[in-house]
Write a structure and sequence with these properties.
Blueprint lengths: L2 H20 L6 E2 L11 E5 L10 E4 L8 E5 L4 E7 L4 E6 L20 E2 L5 E6 L3 E5 L1
Antiparallel strand pairs: 1-7, 2-5, 2-9, 3-4, 5-6, 6-8
Protein backbone atom coordinates (compact mmCIF):
# COMPACT_ATOMS: atom_id res chain seq x y z
CA UNK A 1 0.00 0.00 0.00
CA UNK A 2 1.35 3.40 -0.91
CA UNK A 3 2.28 6.02 1.69
CA UNK A 4 -0.41 8.47 0.51
CA UNK A 5 -3.17 5.83 0.57
CA UNK A 6 -2.11 4.67 4.05
CA UNK A 7 -2.08 8.28 5.27
CA UNK A 8 -5.58 8.91 3.92
CA UNK A 9 -6.93 5.73 5.55
CA UNK A 10 -5.27 6.59 8.88
CA UNK A 11 -6.71 10.12 8.77
CA UNK A 12 -10.19 8.75 8.05
CA UNK A 13 -9.95 6.33 10.97
CA UNK A 14 -8.84 9.09 13.31
CA UNK A 15 -11.71 11.33 12.17
CA UNK A 16 -14.37 8.63 12.54
CA UNK A 17 -14.73 8.84 16.34
CA UNK A 18 -15.22 12.61 16.13
CA UNK A 19 -18.06 12.17 13.65
CA UNK A 20 -19.61 9.40 15.75
CA UNK A 21 -19.44 11.54 18.89
CA UNK A 22 -21.32 14.39 17.24
CA UNK A 23 -24.33 12.07 16.77
CA UNK A 24 -24.17 10.32 20.14
CA UNK A 25 -27.38 10.05 22.09
CA UNK A 26 -27.94 12.03 25.22
CA UNK A 27 -29.45 9.52 27.63
CA UNK A 28 -32.74 10.25 29.35
CA UNK A 29 -32.14 10.29 33.09
CA UNK A 30 -34.61 8.78 35.55
CA UNK A 31 -34.78 9.24 39.32
CA UNK A 32 -34.07 12.97 39.19
CA UNK A 33 -36.79 13.81 41.73
CA UNK A 34 -35.07 11.87 44.52
CA UNK A 35 -35.38 8.42 46.07
CA UNK A 36 -38.84 9.06 47.58
CA UNK A 37 -40.50 9.71 44.21
CA UNK A 38 -41.24 7.76 41.03
CA UNK A 39 -38.34 7.43 38.60
CA UNK A 40 -40.37 9.46 36.09
CA UNK A 41 -42.48 12.14 37.72
CA UNK A 42 -45.28 12.72 35.22
CA UNK A 43 -47.42 11.04 32.60
CA UNK A 44 -47.90 13.08 29.46
CA UNK A 45 -49.76 12.92 26.20
CA UNK A 46 -48.74 14.17 22.77
CA UNK A 47 -50.93 17.17 21.88
CA UNK A 48 -51.00 20.50 20.04
CA UNK A 49 -49.87 18.97 16.73
CA UNK A 50 -50.90 20.57 13.46
CA UNK A 51 -53.35 18.13 11.81
CA UNK A 52 -52.77 19.90 8.48
CA UNK A 53 -49.02 19.41 8.88
CA UNK A 54 -47.09 16.23 9.59
CA UNK A 55 -49.31 15.46 12.63
CA UNK A 56 -46.55 13.65 14.52
CA UNK A 57 -44.00 14.50 17.18
CA UNK A 58 -40.39 13.57 16.47
CA UNK A 59 -38.51 11.77 19.23
CA UNK A 60 -34.87 12.87 19.04
CA UNK A 61 -31.59 11.32 20.21
CA UNK A 62 -30.58 14.65 21.78
CA UNK A 63 -32.62 17.63 23.00
CA UNK A 64 -32.25 19.62 19.80
CA UNK A 65 -33.92 19.67 16.38
CA UNK A 66 -30.58 18.64 14.88
CA UNK A 67 -30.60 15.43 16.92
CA UNK A 68 -31.25 12.23 15.01
CA UNK A 69 -34.95 11.37 14.74
CA UNK A 70 -35.49 8.08 16.55
CA UNK A 71 -39.24 7.72 16.31
CA UNK A 72 -42.52 9.51 15.58
CA UNK A 73 -45.43 9.73 18.01
CA UNK A 74 -48.96 10.58 16.95
CA UNK A 75 -51.60 12.63 18.74
CA UNK A 76 -52.65 11.13 22.06
CA UNK A 77 -49.55 8.94 22.47
CA UNK A 78 -48.74 8.46 26.16
CA UNK A 79 -45.26 9.15 27.46
CA UNK A 80 -43.51 9.15 30.81
CA UNK A 81 -41.83 12.51 31.44
CA UNK A 82 -38.54 11.84 33.20
CA UNK A 83 -35.96 14.51 32.39
CA UNK A 84 -35.97 18.10 31.10
CA UNK A 85 -33.78 20.89 29.82
CA UNK A 86 -34.09 24.59 30.57
CA UNK A 87 -35.04 25.31 26.95
CA UNK A 88 -38.20 23.19 26.79
CA UNK A 89 -37.05 19.69 25.83
CA UNK A 90 -38.40 16.71 27.77
CA UNK A 91 -36.65 13.37 28.20
CA UNK A 92 -39.34 10.73 27.74
CA UNK A 93 -39.84 7.00 28.06
CA UNK A 94 -42.55 5.35 25.97
CA UNK A 95 -43.80 2.13 24.42
CA UNK A 96 -45.02 2.79 20.87
CA UNK A 97 -46.86 -0.54 20.76
CA UNK A 98 -48.69 -0.31 24.09
CA UNK A 99 -52.33 0.16 24.87
CA UNK A 100 -53.11 3.87 25.35
CA UNK A 101 -54.23 3.39 28.94
CA UNK A 102 -51.39 1.17 30.18
CA UNK A 103 -47.76 0.47 29.51
CA UNK A 104 -45.05 -0.86 31.79
CA UNK A 105 -41.66 0.66 31.09
CA UNK A 106 -40.34 -0.03 34.58
CA UNK A 107 -39.86 3.68 35.20
CA UNK A 108 -42.52 4.28 37.85
CA UNK A 109 -40.76 2.70 40.82
CA UNK A 110 -38.41 4.40 43.23
CA UNK A 111 -34.81 4.99 42.20
CA UNK A 112 -32.13 5.35 44.89
CA UNK A 113 -30.20 7.79 42.68
CA UNK A 114 -30.44 9.27 39.17
CA UNK A 115 -29.35 7.01 36.32
CA UNK A 116 -29.75 6.75 32.54
CA UNK A 117 -32.87 4.88 31.44
CA UNK A 118 -31.89 1.56 29.85
CA UNK A 119 -35.17 -0.14 29.00
CA UNK A 120 -37.24 -2.16 28.35
CA UNK A 121 -39.10 0.61 26.49
CA UNK A 122 -37.79 3.32 24.18
CA UNK A 123 -36.53 6.71 25.29
CA UNK A 124 -35.59 10.02 23.71
CA UNK A 125 -36.26 13.73 23.65
CA UNK A 126 -39.37 15.66 22.54
CA UNK A 127 -40.18 19.34 22.71
CA UNK A 128 -42.52 20.33 25.52
CA UNK A 129 -44.68 22.51 23.26
CA UNK A 130 -46.31 19.31 22.04
CA UNK A 131 -46.90 17.54 25.37
CA UNK A 132 -49.57 18.02 28.02
CA UNK A 133 -49.27 16.63 31.53
CA UNK A 134 -52.14 14.30 32.38
CA UNK A 135 -50.87 12.97 35.73
CA UNK A 136 -48.08 13.80 38.14
Amino acid sequence: MGFLKATIIAAALLAAPVLAQSNDRQPVMIGLDGPEFDACGSLGEVANLNPRGDNYLSVRARPTTSGTELDRLGPGARILMCDATTDGWIGVVYDPNADEDYFDCQALGLEPEPRPYTGPCRSGWVHGDYVIVIAG
